[in-house]
Design brief:
51% helix; eight-stranded mixed barrel; TIM Barrel; 2 domains; 412 residues; alpha/beta
Amino acid sequence: MSTFVGRQPIFDKEGVCFGYELLYRSCEANNVATFQDNAKASARVIVNLIHNIGLTPIIGHKRGYINVDESILFSDAILLLPKEHFSFEILEHTKVSLALYERVKHLHSLGYRFSLDDFDCSDTMIKYYEPLFPYIDIIKVDIQAIGIPQLQTSIDKLQKYTIPLLAEKIETHEEYETCSKLDFQLFQGYFFERPVILSGKRIEPNTVNALRLINCIQENNDVAYISEKFATCPDLVYNLLRHVNSGAYHFKQKITSIKQMVLLLGPQKIISWLGLFLYGVPQNRPFGTEIFNNAKFRAKVMEELALMCNKPELANKAFLTGSLSLINAYLNIPMLEFLNNVHLDDEIKTALLFREGFLGELLYIATEMNHSEDTEATIKKLGHYPCFSTEQLYDACTKATIFVEETESHPN
């Protein structure tokens, strides 16, 4: 059985990611994101995934958060998951009985950590789950179910329990701003991909250097010429060296010159990687690291799918398109303004601006597979893609997840 794990980051107040909610997928029919159906079988898929891929490629050194209900809580499968690396989110439809209370209490005494998922803060829900509160580390508050106007009143009901609160399903920067002023310690949602565009924002010098180099290579792909241009940008040389020496490559010879790197990678590959260099130093920006990771994920998925579609000539373009797809979010400028500063062909521009064309459709797929909770709908939309199967799609996503963690230590 082929499996793939999607990851949705969880942030603290500084915009630093400390963990991921893991969204499990299999290429079987009627794939769903929760464990409502056939929970034990889903748990075995999780265990299989962890044992075959390993923990590091999935979550690195962060904590993973997994959805569970009473079926999994009572099964032996949960005991196979390393408690040191995972926390377990008790789903909102979980039936709380005396037996489940005793089970959670026992697991908690063994060191297992729990949170409550999709909490609406209603009096009914609080009363129903209150017996479990002593064993809960986080309550994940569903801000969409409550609504922003009622949010303060709703979370005030939980104040006396002194349990850390997480605001989940944050969809916009405005919602994040509101939640950040309330009594939430943690945040989760897609808001970091939808930035507020700040007027007068300048593209920073290191980004300008990468843009100039992309433009130069587009005009002249001579190795000596490219090496000479690289020599004027020591920050890019350093970053390229880190990339070449990361887990993404397995070169046997030692790098001794800029020209050697250019020859090893080739001009087109260098252009595709420069799309990632544009992200500068992501850990210095709120949510920057996860924006960068998502860009890497999209880039790798698109590259793999282009190859599966027997279009190797588009693989580098696909990688570059994916890597640039979040640059507007990272730089806080409109995509059109960014594209006015770089010479890219119309196919890439059309994909980035309108999600159209072959590259635009690959970008849609990569985006949805990264964090969509309804991959069934995504996969159904791929019926006109005979060049790759559902299993191959998951394989591409798994490779991309591994790629993100292999290059995680590279702080462009």
